[in-house]
Amino acid sequence: MNTGIAGDFLGLLAQHNLRPLSAEASSRAPEQTHSTTVFAFRFRDGVLVAGDRRATAGNIIVADDVNKIIEIDRSSVLAIAGVPAMAFEMARAMQVSFAYYRRSQLQPLSLEAKVRALARLLRENLPLTLQGVGVVAPVFATVETQGDRIVPRIYFYDPLGAQFEAVSFAASGSGSGTVRSVLSFQERFGEVKPSTMTLKQAIRFAHNVLTVASEFDAATGGVDPTRTLWPILKVLDDKGVRDVQSTEHQAAQKEGA
Prior knowledge:
Layout: H1 9-15, E1 34-35, E2 38-43, E3 46-51, E4 55-57, E5 60-63, E6 69-73, E7 76-79, H2 84-105, H3 111-124, H4 126-130, E8 139-146, E9 149-157, E10 163-166, E11 169-172, H5 176-189, H6 199-216, E12 232-237, E13 240-243, H7 246-256
Antiparallel strand pairs: 1-4, 2-3, 2-11, 3-12, 4-5, 6-7, 7-8, 8-9, 9-10, 12-13
Helix pairs in contact: 2-3, 5-6, 6-7
């Protein structure tokens, strides 16, 4: 008997024995590509989600132009750390699932259902995770509308699908230890706390955090204004999701110079 809820796209796939993720691990599998450092923090008007552009495989830099910050819908962003092949597949499944629910039920999916959908996809990936193949540890950021105001929400997950809500910030990937240390220090002792920053201050701060992380982690790409190599930044506020443009990166750099 089908006990799924109406509009559950992932449940619909399961009814037809179709699953978003399926692969067999092999001892002869090539070196996995990993996307590295991502993080999200609250600023005065919403949430800023950031990620460097680097992907590595062992000691090889595979690419320095990878977009790890993916818009899922108009109020949700997924920041991926781990194996991109699995993470991108999860992002696509979420995009289709959220859109399917919205169009079939004529309303957006609830916050709780969005958060659990990602946990469910991570559990679907459990066999590969336990074999050390295809490990993904994402950060999920969204904004919830409560009356006439928005409430930013940041969640982080372990590779087995456990979800945790962060009060102020979350980070994942190889450079996340440094990122969390800097964010925690700034929030507790900084003259300007991240949660009170303007957008321009938050952009500049994100640049600085990634620069410090790249100094302690070779797998984390830094910020190079001379090559206009900016990290991927997305803003979630009362207007929804948008990309931080190159001109905003440059303006933030000039202000901090």
